[in-house]
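Please, why this fold?
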Amino acid sequence: MSNLAHSSHPARPAIAWIGLGIMGSPMSENLVKAGYDVTGFTLEQDKLDRLAAAGGTAAGSIAEAVRDADVIITMVPASPQVEAIAYGPEGILDNARSGALLIDMSSITPQTSVDLAKAAKDKGIRVLDAPVSGGEAGAIEAVLSIMVGGEQADFDEAEPIFEALGKTIVLCGPHGSGQTVKAANQLIVAVNIQACAEAVVFLEKSGVDLKAALDVLNGGLAGSTVLTRKKDNFLQRDFTPGFRIDLHHKDMGIVTDAARNVGAALPVGAVVAQLVASLRAQGDGGLDHSALLRAVERLSGAEV
């Protein structure tokens, strides 16, 4: 039996949330604020305590979290983690009830999403891939872009949930399409950050007032959401992770691999993928992706 009968909002689906990291914690809390019953599971006890403090319910296992859920949302780092939580006797597919809707908001390979949807169908579970863009700030402010792959009817059912999490919500096509669009998003973001980082080093070495320069650049054609969001990171050399280099490294692997499979050339993307990989090899994988600035500084002779 579903918990719906016990909910203070009987019309709202009961939600299980798996994965309470930098993105998952604020996103799940936004659903609690929107009046949903959210039962969460993650590996770190302090994250479970945080959800409980925000008004959600902490579960002791994936099986316990998903058992009575109408909707299950997953937000974990990469394809191997999605497979680990979805499959096997302790996983989502073996423990969720038939008819549940599984929304995977992780950024993974399109093929993993396609395979998951196929495996879930055999269990009577519907799936949407719904990766997001907007980083930690977008998650906290509930202004994420959500790119979705799957069936129209399932998307329509999930839309009120998405509206509590983000602002731009688009069904991009069948299973895997959300992940393909997310891969393109990560390509654009990485190249944009790299261009901004190169401009910052060039401006500073030229002796220009960096804050003034970035303000005027951001008001013209060179302006971007990336520059708006990352300007302070550049100015203060604050690389506290909103989105870690390690994860962008994973995403650049996804987009270069997917592009190769469809025969699309990504010459600039390939170079930036190598710069991200090199930054990670230098020990900066745990920093925010705006730390691409550090790589440009090193190449320009600075001791970083």
Remarks:
- Residues 1-9 have pLDDT under 50 and may be disordered.
- Strands lie at 15-18, 38-41, 57-58, 71-74, 101-104, 126-129, 132-133, 144-149, 166-173.
- DSSP finds 14 helices and nine strands in the chain.
